Amino acid sequence: MSDHELQALRVRIDSLDEKILELISQRARCAQEVGRIKMATLKEGEEAIFYRPEREAQVLKRIMELNKGPLDNEEMARLFREIMSTCLALEQPLKVAYLGPEGTFSQAAALKHFGQAVVSKPMAAIDEIFREVAAGAVSFGVVPVENSTEGAINHTLDSFLEHDLVICGEVELRIHHHLLVAENTKTEKISRIYSHAQSLAQCRKWLDAHYPNVERVAVSSNAEAAKRVKSEWNSAAIAGDMAAQLYGLSILADKIEDRPDNSTRFLIIGNQTVPATGDDKTSVIISMSNKPGALHELLIPFHASGIDLTRIETRPSRSGKWSYVFFIDFYGHKDDPLVRDALEKVAQESVGLKVLGSYPNAVL
Ligand SMILES: C=C(O[C@@H]1C=C(C(=O)O)C=C[C@H]1O)C(=O)O
């Protein structure tokens, strides 16, 4: 390519950037106007809700449908995710609590879901995230709920039994673990590997093959593991890209998770119920009396209405020895007539039914 052609393309890019700049500014002014109308139409005692998860899901889906390349749909949606996040911050910066410290996968999930313009607040434990949201100190919380290799995150499920919060969204994150070391680590003398118990479990086979005799130490988070390695010459950590960058560690072995599709699903918890988008999921907790065939009976109304269950998890109910509650997720919104019918029947059969929330199916 001649210099002349290159120069012409750069002039073209400059002119396109000017148009993009003008369009983004116009879009931001529209979002500001939406905010102004929301404030003006507020009834007495009502709190303004600027963030609309259902609307954001629709905007992203539409962009993915309209996209003709060369950027793939996910990349394009991610750019729009950031534009929306920044526009929303003009109305009101969202405060979001996640499982800290900084650099955890929970933080990565929060930023993936809400975009970089949120104010994110690290919490020390899952239960504290629930409390922070319940107290109104943050608008939303991000909590891990299941991992494709290791299954349910029981702390999160149990917290739903103790708090009255609404699930407003979900986000799935591919989890890539790396073996990380600090500058001063003697890599041939590693005698200890730190990580969160979940991550150690997700890399069990790799560790058995490569470091069978090294002590595995479970700590409160991957980021905490990364932090510790900074000051110990004989240890390594298992954590992700964010923690590696944040704590200035280098990658001794990358993508060491046993399953290549290793992913974690996170839930967004808040106080607002989310209207239907036409592509939603619902999560419920059901307690049944402890009698033979209880689970079968409970599932009949879902089956009869053709509702597609995506997950069922059992936990001790905490209200009696050997009594259980079921966490069930399914496609559909609680206001869909079919879902409403099925839930009414389930309520009749069960001891207790609690709808945790209906929310848009994860777009990104
Ligand atoms: C602009 C709005 O408010 C927020 C910003 C959005 C955006 O930038 O597209 C979308 C939904 C809301 O989170 C709206 O409700 O439409």
From TrEMBL:
Main location group:
cytoplasm
The Prephenate dehydratase domain, residue ranges? 95-271
**One Pfam family cited in the UniProt record for this chain:** ACT
Cite the position(s) of the site with description Essential for prephenate dehydratase activity.
Answer: T264
E.C. designation(s): 4.2.1.51, 5.4.99.5
Q: What are the record keywords, sorted? A: Amino-acid biosynthesis, Aromatic amino acid biosynthesis, Cytoplasm, Isomerase, Lyase, Multifunctional enzyme, Phenylalanine biosynthesis
Q: Which residues form the Chorismate mutase domain?
A: 1-95
The keyword Plastid is assigned to this record: no
User: What function does the entry list?
Assistant: Catalyzes the Claisen rearrangement of chorismate to prephenate and the decarboxylation/dehydration of prephenate to phenylpyruvate.
What's the protein here called?
Bifunctional chorismate mutase/prephenate dehydratase
Q: Which organism is it from?
A: Denitrificimonas caeni
